[in-house]
Amino acid sequence: MPMKLDEIDKRILRALQRDGRMQNVELAREVGLSPSPCLRRVRLLEEAGIIRRYAAVVDPAKIGLPLSLFARIWLETQDAETIDRFISAVREFPEVVECYIMLGDCDALLRVVAADLDDYRRFQANHLSRVKGVRNIKTDVPSQTVKQSVALPLR
User: What pLDDT was estimated at residue 100?
Assistant: First the structure.
């Protein structure tokens, strides 16, 4: 069951989603609290698992991975063993930055980062298509990224 957040909790979360390295004193000033109660609230949000972790958002192009592709995966069967084997394999591939088990047409949807199309083709041929239970892979190449965010809406 989701935790009930008041407006101050939401302001804290909005600020930390924007800048996870924000110092507590600056955060407290921004959300209208003194530092001690602000820190207490942040710790409660962490303990409740609402704030799962802090991470740096890295620009993929600046580290040689400018291409994001979406791979739709169809498995041979949808039994628990095949799905679990697929999930375990995909978790080992650093190129796969997002993976969703789907209920629609395909069985899984992956977002894969690569240096270029040849790099992706090598990854698909040497790794992804060799996962036991993978029947078919269809890859979609986006022509433009319109929006990409890790911040969740807090209403």
Answer: 98
